[in-house]
Specification:
two-stranded parallel ribbon
Length: 344
């Protein structure tokens, strides 16, 4: 199940005895785990007494995990086991008869668990849905597919978050938020959740404005660097040089800026490619992997640049990347690449 459907099922309090919370988005996993545990335990004291946490990253043998899961509760009314980083759900790399035997035993234990026992498996790996273990949990327990969201899939989550905060977001602020997040290599809902909580502290009334968003989000490198890509795309040389001048002494951030610029130039090139084949406007969203509105803006921006200029920019940025990483050159190569692209 996806997060919303999974949480709806859990909220009905028809708890299963075994859950698998799997996927790359920890935000979904953390909230699902905490909701299940809050329903299993009345308070923190009961949780402390009745919950056993086993982390497979600490090289715990599967036999030990099985024994804990199969143990009747002692001095408490429930035996709840949280198995973190359960790597045995992913496709195996080779033959391991010993592991196969233990997994068969785990399957048997989970199939006939005591009514007092519960187990939650969590993993950031994509589970192998062909495994008998996965199929059994999917059929008799609960499986959360905690897939990371793409920027164009963010609107429903954002709407839910705003409802939880009892706030609204004006059109300019929403556009800024979606555009900014679209530049992140990976969307981290945990990060965005925390930042929106901070934003709520600065809001006067019940409406989030762009000014408040910019004030709070400016401290994030991924978001503060949005200003540079925005200035370059708009061919604003003065603003671009001003922003770059503030990065001179920070190699790590310069490399981050460079990566964003490379991504933006590639998006502009791809937009030109698809537009030459008749794809335009919001229809660019799917091939570019962007929110349709952002894709349309990217397509419009690509018209300001020739294909030759964009291709040259990629070569210039590659040279800057090599110079920065080897110490052969500094920010001047990055500035030159930006200047040549804007003036092209």
């Amino acid at each position: 199940m996806k997060f919303k459907e999974f949480m709806s099922d859990v909220n009905k309090k028809n708890l299963k005895h075994v859950y698998l919370l799997a996927g790359a988005e920890n935000y979904f996993i953390d909230r699902a785990r905490e909701k299940i545990l809050s329903l299993l335990f009345d308070d923190r004291s009961a949780r402390s007494d009745g919950l056993t946490v086993l982390d497979c990253d600490n090289k715990i043998d599967l036999s030990e995990i099985i024994n804990v899961i199969d143990t009747a509760p002692l001095f408490v009314d429930k035996n709840v086991v949280l198995v973190k980083n359960a790597k045995f759900f992913k496709a195996k790399a080779g033959d391991d008869k010993s592991a196969d035997t233990k997994l068969e035993r785990l399957l048997t234990v989970l199939s006939s668990m005591l009514e007092t026992n519960y187990v939650l498996f969590t993993t950031n790996d994509a589970p192998d849905k062909r495994k008998k273990l996965y199929k059994m949990i999917d059929k008799t327990g609960g499986v959360l597919e905690a897939e990371a969201l793409k920027s164009w899939q963010l609107e429903p989550w954002l709407n839910d978050k705003l409802r939880a905060l009892k706030l609204t977001m004006d059109a300019d602020a929403r556009q800024y938020f979606i555009e900014t997040v679209s530049l992140m290599p990976e969307v981290s809902l945990g990060l965005l959740d925390n930042e929106l909580d901070k934003v709520a502290l600065f809001v006067k009334g019940d409406r989030i404005t762009r000014a408040v968003l910019e004030k709070v989000l400016a401290s994030l490198p991924e978001i503060s660097n949005f200003a540079l890509t925005d200035a370059v795309t708009a061919k604003n040389l003065g603003r671009s040089m001003q922003i770059l001048s503030m990065q001179h002494d920070d190699l790590k951030n310069l490399l981050g800026v460079l990566a964003l610029l490379v991504r933006q130039v590639r998006l502009l090139l791809r937009a030109k490619h698809f537009m030459s084949r008749g794809v335009s406007g919001k229809a660019l969203g799917e091939p570019l992997g962007l929110n349709p509105f952002i894709a349309q803006k990217t397509g419009d921006a690509s018209k300001k640049f020739s294909q030759a200029a964009l291709e040259t920019a990629l070569l210039d940025l590659a040279e800057a990347d090599f110079g920065l990483k080897t110490g052969a050159a500094g920010a001047e190569l990055l500035e030159r690449a930006v200047m040549r692209l804007i003036l092209s």
